[in-house]
């Protein structure tokens, strides 16, 4: 059991009032709040050792280089990567996928090849593959979903076939909460000689991640969804693949020798980190990981299962409302997307904001998925380590009030 009160005290923003009510922050799938240790890490960088990394021999530069590389090592351990050279700093999940699509995809995808994604991908894991498929004359193939929001794997052996070169799948859907069977999909990809990319934007913050166990070739996630700052993300690549990948961005930092005519590339991982990196935010992400590991990723997942079961139970009793995604917490994260034909999600978002509750409304960057549900948008509540059952109670009560208010003359 997590000591939620102790955890909440570490997050200054949670004592804020919104419209005179205590803030209930249920927009964690969009971005999470930051503990004081992460905020202090940023202040500490800029007040005591701000300097560029790798190139300096002075004290400040050596200190920032040490802490920057220590954060990389911490990320490697967090996802059980054998080598820290496999960890490339990016801005976010989106940049990580674009890096793979450009640096690996442009060279390895040839006309007639197939790229497989699922029907529940975030635009970040769809648009880069659409563009790659178009430029390299490949085909984009979509794994469909069932009515309960799980993947429909009935024809998976036809979908993932000898033409498939990469399978790129979201671990936990940001719109449905579904946790996908990635062991099975990764195994199927490897059986036909394809690579496997895991979009861990929603899973890395909420459960233990183990790249060795999954055997994925690429993993991407964002620091800001796991208590870290915005502007810093992670791309993990299996060492043998990384050795053979060409750089994505070029310029300073990523070169070894440069003449007026040509250049050679720096060692890994610098080869993929052109220009001055986001030093302060990388170090602060390391601090966020220290915080998460102190609580324990298994415990974090357990807390989320508990909140998910609690919320599922409450949602079951609500009328005039459709909840999307699987009803089984073993294959679902704490993400609740729902729709009522009587309330436009934006109206509901405003109604709940009046009660101090922050939820997200819209298509959640999964426009094709939301369109396939035949609705304009959903309302989405998403939980994290500092959320409580009491907050869920207040949210459900407010939701009931909203339904009553908007359906009074129906
Ligand atoms: C599943 C999933 N993939 C990718 C992204 C993109 O993350 P970012 O905006 O941090 O690049 C998100 C963000 O919501 C997401 O939920």
List the main descriptive attributes of the protein structure presented here.
binds pyridoxal-5'-phosphate, globular, single chain, seven-stranded mixed β-sheet, 2 domains, 17 strands, Aspartate Aminotransferase, domain 2, 410 residues, four-stranded antiparallel β-sheet, alpha/beta, Aspartate Aminotransferase, domain 1
Give a structural overview.
The chain is an alpha/beta fold. It folds into two domains: 4-30 and 296-406, Alpha-Beta Complex (Aspartate Aminotransferase, domain 1); 39-293, Type I PLP-dependent aspartate aminotransferase-like (Major domain) (Aspartate Aminotransferase, domain 2, 3-Layer(aba) Sandwich). Helices cover 39% and strands 16% of the residues. It is built from 14 helices and 17 strands. The protein has helices at 4-9, 36-49, 59-78, 93-108, 127-135, 156-159, 182-191, 211-214, 239-243, 279-295, 297-316, 345-354, 367-372, 389-406; strands at 17-18, 21-22, 24-25, 87-90, 114-118, 139-143, 164-170, 195-199, 218-222, 233-237, 255-258, 263-265, 322-323, 335-339, 357-358, 360-362, 378-382. Strands 4-10-9-8-7-5-6 form a seven-stranded mixed sheet, sandwiched between helices. Helix 2 (36-49) packs antiparallel against helix 10, helix 4 (93-108) runs parallel beside helix 5 (127-135) and helix 11 packs parallel to helix 14. The longest helix is centred in the first third of the chain and has 20 residues, at 59-78. The structure holds pyridoxal-5'-phosphate. Pyridoxal-5'-phosphate is lined by residues 29, 92-94, 122, 124-125, 170, 174, 199, 201-202, 222, 365. Residues 29, 92-94, 122, 124-125, 170, 174, 199, 201-202, 222, 365 line the site of pyridoxal-5'-phosphate (PLP).
